[in-house]
Amino acid sequence: MSARLLTHLRHVDLAVPDYEKQLDFYGGVWGLTKVAEDSGISFLAAEGSPEQYVVRLRKAEEKRLDLVSYGAASPEDVDTLAERLLAGDVRLISRPGKVDTPGGGYGFRFFDVDGRTIEVLADVEVRQHRRIEEKEAIPVKLSHVVLNSPDLNRTREWYERHLGFALSDTLSSPHMGEVMHFMRISNQHHSMAIAQGPHTSLHHISFEMRGLDEYMRGSGRVIRAGFKKVWGPGRHMAGDNTFTYFLDPHGNTVEYTTELELLDEDTWHPHVYDFSRPEVTDQWGTANPMNELVAKESFNDPDRGVFVAPPV
Asked: Which of 11, 37, 72, 208 could make a disulfide contact with 77, Cβ separation 3.0–4.6 Å?
């Protein structure tokens, strides 16, 4: 495994044909704040997060995942990582340099093994943020992103070798074998997970709420607004976090969560959980059963952005 140079997840960028409908969802019922907009691109922040934005939306003819962005501690670490990736024959989209997105910064982009665009940024200006109040049911921050891969272990090994991710836990079953790896770049149980899927695509984006009450209030608000609830409310065993999953207007799965486990990395040993046991998928037993229909929603549409860099 490579020495760890990534610090945290910064933002997830989506392209969609019905831009206005998507913007209304994320900037409305989902509870993010639009902080900048320019000719078919908008940037949405979480009020409790120091990140300039946690979601970027772009108007496009085809739905796709534009990129996933991670933080690095310094420009020197960005340069070191770029050199390491070049030496490892990773295909760079851009070389390290100054960026002109909100908050600026220094970074570069490259393709992962499945053809997703990944961005690494340092020196981004901290956004003025605030403490989320009791009963205020809006996202505090971006929690994690889960990606579908047609070759689960190849993708896991690539992220370990090139980006310093560590395995926290695995979901498996007697019939299907390994179906998900939870990966970390800090003591947070996972900032990314890799799911076995029929094609490369976005599985879900997760947003952390202030606490259990705010998580339930937010889930109820989205349900009352008429958006499709895919799965939840419940509590996973791997990561010990709560979950309610919804579909955004373009069929991407988005999650409200809270209380994601923090690990002692020096003593942690990964578990292999049998997800055919109901208490593994939901410790509480309150969520609708995990079945083929729920799983199919999370497969999403095949990503149209594989090995095609976003135009901005």
From this structure: 72
Q: Which amino acid is at 152?
A: L
Task: Specify whether the CB–CB gap between 46 and 139 falls below 8 A.
Answer: yes
Helix (H/G/I), strand (E/B), else coil: 207: strand
**Domain match, 110 and 170 both:** no
Could you give the number of structural domains in the chain?
2
Instruction: Give residue 1's pLDDT.
Output: 59
Peptide bond into 233 cis (omega under 30): yes
CA distances to 42, 78, 119, 274 from 109, in Å: 20, 10, 4, 36
User: Does residue 34 lie in a domain region?
Assistant: yes
Domain region containing 179: 141-299
Write the CB contacts of 108 (distance below 8 Å, at least 6 apart in sequence).
78, 82, 92, 93, 94, 95, 96, 97, 119, 120
Q: pTM for the full model?
A: 0.97
Q: Which helix (H) or strand (E) holds 118?
A: strand 117-122
pLDDT along the chain (312 residues), means of 10: 89 97 98 96 98 98 98 98 98 98 97 98 97 98 98 98 98 93 98 97 98 98 97 96 97 97 97 94 93 86 97 96
